[in-house]
Amino acid sequence: MTMASGLRAACQRAPGKTALRQGGIERSFGDLMRRVDHVTHATIRDLGLRPGDNAAIIARNCIEYIELVCGLPEAGVAAATINCRYAPVELEAVCADAQVRVVFTDAATEAVVRAARLPRDVRVIVIGPEYEKWLEQGNEPVPRPYVDESDTWCIPYTSGTTGRPKGVLLSHRSRSLVSYGAAAEFGCFSSDDHFLAMTPMSHGGGLAFPMAALLMGGSAEIMDKFDAEAVLDRFMHGGITGVFMVPTHFHQMFSLDESVLARYRRPPLARIISNAAPLPQVLKEKIVEYFGENRLFEIYSSTEAGLVSSLRPPDQLRKTSCVGLPHAFTEVRIVGEDGAECAPGEVGELFSRSPFMFSGYWNKPVETDGVFRDGWVSVGDMAKRDGDGYIYIVDRKKDMVISGGVNIYPREIEEVLMTHPGILDAAVIGVPDEKWGERLRAFAVPREGVSLTVEAMVEHCTGRIAAYKIPRELRLVAALPRNANGKVLKTDLRGIA
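Above: the chain's sequence. Below: its structure in token form.
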């Protein structure tokens, strides 16, 4: 059960069928599989890499990205998928941590990669003519190593929202089973489906979902950047049946002119999967109203835990600020500080256990031990369950504010701020306070022409949340700092006076 073997099985079923499309370029399953094999052979023959070595992909979304993440691991070489928006010093640090032997990049990213002080023996191959010439080294088969399904397939790096990025070891087996889980749950990964891949492939869902489309015998269309109107046009005219989006995409989409939005309203899109950051309820309602009912899935997952829970379309407006029920084959526990299981309504740390989990952090045994507890994994999210067993993510454990000895969860406050008609986006953090230990500070992106004041914010929150949860400080910003997955970088906000 390796990713390439799954792709090979799909190829045998329909070698002439289009697997991938990007702009005017198409790859049939047969062509894709042939090039994947060439990547494997060239990795062994030309690069001389051996099982246990690591490569890096630092590039925008492209067809070659799929070729590399399937071909390199068949040589026993794990692919570290690294954010191409990193600065040179960040790339240098991550490549050093992953101990990469070769870097695959693209023309748009090459200058940043070259500016990073990589070791002299690290080879850089640029996707384009240089890559095609390198691929020719794999024309002749060479003996391959045995690759087990428990071996590492790829190493995405965490977003670094709470510290230095860490390499997440994902096995062939765990990601193959994610594909099966996605196909069973979302209903847009059959051989008849066409998936739009536009979220960066360097991140979990951005790569997992187009791979699921291919392994199930469907097809994927790749976009190398998000353009709100272009995406809506593909929804309406491109035969797209499924898409993975993050909250930032929806914010940008609904910022388009009303005449543009009216043109693409209710496209023939079967499924929308949202993840990476919580969908504010007010935004969720707008999505359902615009795209139609029975389309939106909001899932809770992490690179480390894989699929954890899913809120299905019929529950989107029935269960407010909810992430649904556990996925199949996924067990969930919500545990208090005393280690006991929390009763319905009580807040505790969420742990999950499933075959979708990661194998650990690359070269970080202490950090690995910190997220596992007796075979269960937690990434530090605080949650609660209702009487029906539905899960609600309250906040990140590390984002919780303790003011006057009371635990305050910023996400609850952010949900209320987002219902203010003059606020486009909002975030809340805790800042040091001599009297209370911490106090609340709100950051808001106001709508154009709106003059937002602290007094107006307090008035809006009064009666909606308890008085001690209402921020008394407000900073207006043009945009909240977010990573490529849409998560707010609260570490950056703490640097704003």
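The longest strand covers residues 423-433.
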